[in-house]
Amino acid sequence: MKRSLRPTSTTPVGLVASGAGFIAVTYGMVRYGYGLQLPQLTAELGLSPTAAGAIASGSFAAYCAAALWAQRSMARRSPRVALWFAAALAASGALLVGASWSTASLAVGVLVAGSAAGAASPALVAAVGSTVRGPSADRAQAVVNAGTGVGVALVGAATLAAPSVWRPVWFCAAAGALLTAVVVDRRARWPLGPEGAGDGARDPDAGTDAARTMLRPLVAAFVAGTGSAAVWTFGRSLVTDIGGLPERTTAALWCLLGAAAVLGALSGDAVRALGLRRAWVVTAAAAAVGTAALALAPGSVLVAAVAGALFGGAYTALSGVLIAWAGILRPLAAGRTTATLFVALTAGQAVGALAAGGLAGLAGAQSAFWAGAALLLVAASIRPAMPPCRHAAMPASRRPGVPPCRRRRSSAHRTRALRGGPLGSDR
Fold first, then answer.
1. Distance between CA 100 and CA 107 in Å, rounded?
2. Cα 191 from Cα 188, distance rounded (Å)
3. How far is CA 285 from CA 90, 188, 231, 290, in A?
4. CA–CA gap between residue 36 and residue 347 (Å, rounded)
5. How far is Cα 380 from Cα 285, in angstroms, rounded to an integer?
6. Which residues sit opposite 3 in a β-bridge?
7. What DSSP string describes 361-375?
8. Among 21, 166, 183, 334, which one is most buried in terms of CB atoms within 10 A?
9. What are phi and psi of 3, to 5 degrees?
10. pLDDT-wise least confident of 81-85, 137-141, 374-378
C-alpha cells in the first residue's frame, strides 16, 4: 500500500498518545461530559428529566449518523477526512455548549459535539492499523480506546474543583479537539486512498456471508449499549438525587470512574490471554455488576466508588473487545467494521437513555439501573462465534494482531484467538 510521505519520522508512541488524547476529548469530555455535568446543567438551564433524557438520546443518534458517514467516507477517501470531520464537530459543538443560553442551544451543542466520537473511532482504528504493525497493534488500539477514561477523569476533576463553573470545560475541549487532531494527523502513516485499498485482493468479507457473520456482534453491541445507558446518562444524578451524596463527592466518584476506565487499555492483552469469547463475557458481566451495585446502594460512598470503578473499567474494556472483534472478523476493513459495531452500541444507548428516563419516571430511578444490569447480562450471553477462515489471500502485513490463515493450521489458530491460548503456538 502506498503511504503518505509527510510523516517520515512517525513513531507509534506519538500516535498512540495523541490518539488517546483525541478519544479523551471526543468521548470522555464532549460526549460523556454531558451526563457528568447534568446536575449543574439542570440547575442553570432548567432541564426537566424528560428533556435531559431526550438530549442524551439525540446525542447518541447523532453519534450513529456521524459513524455511518465515516464508514461510507472511509470506503471512498482516506481516513484523514474522517479525523478532521470529527475534530470539526467536537470543536464547534463544544463551543456552542459552552456558550449555551437556553435548553435549545444546549441541545444543539450536545448533539453536534456528541456526534464527533462517531467519526473519531473508525478514523483512529484505521490510523493505528496502518501505522502500528505486529503484536503491538492490538495493545495500541486498546490504549487509544482507553482515552475515554482520561477524558471522564478530567471532566470529573474540573467539576470537583469548581462544580458551578462548567462552561470553561467545554471551551477547553474545543481547543483540545483541534490540537490533538493536528498531532494525530502528523504522527499517523495515513494511506493515500480508502481503507484497505491497494492490498492486492478484494476484501473477502464483503457480501452475504459478511452480513451473517456480523449479526451476532451487532446484536451483542446493541444490547450492551442499551444496558449501559443508565449509568452514562443518569449515574451521577442517581447518587446525587436518590443517594443524597454531596455534589463534590459524586464528582470525585466520577473521577474514579474515569481513572478506572483507563484500565480498558488492557483489553487487547485480555483478548490475547483469555480469547475473544471469554474477554467479552467477562467485560459485559463486570459492567452489569457495577450497574447493579449502583442501584443497590446509591447512598453508600464505598459501594458507589467500587461500582463506578468497576463499570468504568469494564465498559471501556468492552468497547476495546468490540474493536478486536471487528479486527478478527474483517481485518481488511477494521476501521469501517468498528464503526458498524459502535453504531450498534450507540444505537442501543440511544434507546436505553429514552427507556431509562421513562422507566425512572414510572417506577423510580433505581429500576432503570436494575433493567440495565439485566440487559448487560443478556449481552454477556451473546458470545462471539468462530467465523470461517477466509483470509488466505490477505497480505500478512494487513493482519496486525489477527491470526493468519495458513493451510490446515488456520482453523485451530482462529479457534485460539476466540477461545484463548497463545496465538503463536502453532507456528
1. 9
2. 9
3. 31, 35, 15, 9
4. 20
5. 6
6. 191
7. HHH-HHHHHHHHHHH
8. 334
9. -120, 155
10. 137-141
